[in-house]
Amino acid sequence: MSGQRSTSSASTPEETFRSLCRSSPWRWETLRFTIAWRAPSDQGLDTAPPLSAWLRRPAALRVEAADGTLLHSTTGNERSRDALYVSATRKSWLVAPRLVTPVYDGAGLVRRRPEAAYGEAVFGDPRWSSMLDPVELAGNAPVAMAPGADRVEVRDIAEESFAGRPVLAATVTSNASYEPAAPGRPLIGEGRTRVLVDIGTAVCVSTTALDGATRGAGHDLAILGVDEYLTDDYFRAAPPELSDVSRHVPWIVG
Question: pLDDT tens for residues 98-109?
Fold first, then answer.
């Protein structure tokens, strides 16, 4: 991993956790995973069958139901950009995160994120973007050392394992400055939430609300593959048929 680095690593476990939550855009390009959302425990509902997904940044996404039924497929290149660029807003000219360099700490995690065209492809629930890039738990950069200044309070940090991969787990509680990346659809619940962030990809692979009416609610994301080679054909609803050049093509005359 290249880029500008600070001279020392994060000084506390809390800073390490926040830096990890800022790092996703620079830790992977493609991801294969399953995702399931959990309802609150007191509702007595079974967890919905997991969806299977393939994602290639910045916008290619394929989603299948548990039985293999195709639910969504896009390369992300179908929509014309004419209207976007004619608008000539500053935001429309931002480049992808992988084309800009963040400030890293000594451990290779992102301490300060630059301005870029952030945002992940979503399907159905806008929290897809939040879990794939959980920067809403940390903000773009460290804040002043004052009570309640951070987006969330971080406690009980521990290295654990989830779906066969190492994660950094923490119990977080939102502060007044917490702002969901998807308005009205926060990644964490009211009160305390147990959060697991995959160390290799910085994806939030699990959340579990610990308090209130949403107790037990959350999501589980199992990472199955990282940076696999995924062509456009993977993200088309019906891949184009290739001609078999060895097959005789009859010519009908008359």
Answer: 999 999 999 999
Instruction: Give 171-179 contacts, CB < 8 A, sequence gap 24+.
Output: 171/195, 171/210, 172/137, 175/148, 175/149, 175/150, 175/151, 176/148, 177/139, 177/143, 177/148, 177/149, 177/150, 177/151, 178/136, 178/151, 178/152, 179/136, 179/151
CB atoms under 10 Å from CB of 162, counted, come to: 17
The pTM assigned to this predicted structure is 0.85
C-alpha to C-alpha distance for 25 and 120, rounded to whole angstroms: 9
| 220 C-beta neighbours (distance < 10 Å), count | 18
Please give the Cα distance from 135 to 141 (Å, whole number).
10
- pLDDT tens, residue by residue, 155-193: 999 999 999 999 999 999 999 999 999 899 999 988 999
Q: How far, in Å, CA of 172 to CA of 194, rounded?
A: 6
